[in-house]
Structures are given as C-alpha cells and as structure tokens.
Design goal:
Elements lengths: L1 E3 L2 E8 L14 E2 L2 E2 H9 L8 E6 L5 H10 L2 E5 L4 H12 L3 E6 L7 H14 L3 E3 L13 E4 H10 L3 H4 L4 H5 L6 E3 L17 H13 L8 H11 L1
Parallel strand pairs: 2-5, 2-7, 5-6, 8-10
Antiparallel strand pairs: 1-2, 3-4, 7-9, 8-9
Keywords: Transferase
Organism: Pacificispira spongiicola
Protein name: NTP transferase domain-containing protein
Length: 233
C-alpha cells in the first residue's frame, strides 16, 4: 500500500463481469491488452498512490477478475456485488487503508496526472472527499474520487438505501452539509460531456480505434487522447 501523511492508501478499481450493456468488458481485448489491463498500465504511473486493489464481487462469475489481478501482481478484494459502498469500505478495512481513490474499471484511458491532482487535493485540503465529478468536470472515463474510510463508514451508517450504496459517494454529494468535499477542475474545460470509458460495444470499437492511433497508450496524456478522440469516433 502507498503511505501518505493521511495514512495508507490504494487505488480501488471497481469491476464486475456482468455489465448489462457489455458483459465481460473488463477482460475484453483492447489492442493486445484487456480493458482493465490498459487501466492498470496507466495507473502504475501515478506518483502519489499507485498500489492497486481490484475490488470485485464474491460471485463465481467474477473469478476471472481475481485471476487477472493475481497475474498482474495487484491486490484483489471480493465483496458484495451490489452494495459497492460496503465493498469499498470493507476493502479498506481488510487492507488497512485509511483512504482510497476510486477508479471505475471501464476506464482504460484513466489519467495518472488527473488521479494525482485529486490525491493531492485530498491530502492538502484535509477533506472527506476530493473529486472531479462534483460537478463533473472531466470526461467520463477520466473520473477519480479520493475518499476517507471514515467518510465511507459515515455513509454506511447514514443509509441502507441501495440506490445510494450502489453508487458509493452519491449520498455525500446529495448531503454536502454533512461532508467536506473539494472539487478538482480541469485547466481546459468543456470535455465533461465526452466519454472515453468503455461501457457499450460502440465504446469498445471506438477505444480500439483510439488505441491504434496512440504512439504509446501507457504514457499518452489526457490532452493527447482527447485530441485524437474525434478521429476514432
């Protein structure tokens, strides 16, 4: 785990293999690597928190994700399929984390510089939650949230509504008076309605075209990816 002045932390990659729109997407091929593998390659370059734990469900359908994590040399935590807030909190407890950075596993173009910005804001501001999705200010697929375990425990204590607990931090965003939240905004706004995530077959086709355009998918900046994205559309 990564040690910081707010205690140990890790990147939690959230993934399941029974996505309604694109089942199995995390392990589908994307230019010679699984979609999740592309995310792992890029997130290894994070400078503040770069230890990774794949947080998936405890169902047999997600056994291949545990095998993937083992092959990649990253951690794996298995918990509730639908209560994702509890899964994240339990992953923290099980791994001795005081905070974590939430990354969706369908984000093969996750940007380490963006993740570092969110992590740095969390550390410097001393907040419960640092985010670039409240309001959404970066493309879908470049989202990151740094959250304290204590804040997650308060969310679990406050609500058992699955509509909140499936979406991890939604309760905090809808009850901002109860949480300290700081937002990270991009230097160049205007991309918040763009998606570079892989959530549908069309997204996967576009991502494959985009990967083929990138000289080095591991090190490409978000700016470089966004500039090439129209050519892959």
């Amino acid at each position: 785990m990564s040690e910081t002045d707010r205690g140990p932390a890790a990147l939690l990659l959230l993934a399941r293999l029974d996505s309604r729109r694109l089942p199995g997407k995390g392990l589908m091929d994307l230019g010679g690597r699984p979609v999740l593998g592309r995310a792992v390659d890029r997130l290894r370059r994070c400078g503040i928190v770069n230890d990774m734990i794949l947080a998936t469900s405890d169902r047999a359908i997600d056994d291949p994700l545990e095998a993937f994590a083992e092959a990649e040399g990253i951690g794996c935590y298995r918990g509730d399929a639908h209560d994702v807030a509890k899964r994240c909190t339990d992953a923290c407890t099980d791994n001795g984390l005081d905070w974590f950075i939430r990354i969706c596993g369908d984000s093969p173009f996750a940007d380490p510089a963006v993740v570092d910005s969110v992590a740095r804001r969390f550390l410097d501001a001393g907040v419960d939650l640092a985010t670039n999705v409240y309001p959404r200010s970066f493309p879908i697929g470049a989202s990151a949230e740094a959250v304290s375990r204590a804040a997650m425990e308060r969310i679990l204590a406050a609500t058992d509504d699955l509509a909140y607990r499936e979406h991890v931090t939604l309760y905090a965003y809808e009850h901002p008076a109860d949480f300290t939240i700081d937002s990270v905004l991009p230097a160049d706004p205007g991309y918040e309605d763009l998606s570079i995530a892989v959530d549908t077959p069309e997204d996967l086709d576009r991502a494959r075209r985009l990967i083929a355009l990138l000289p080095d998918p591991k090190t490409a900046t978000l700016e470089e990816i966004l500039k090439l994205q129209p050519q892959a559309a």
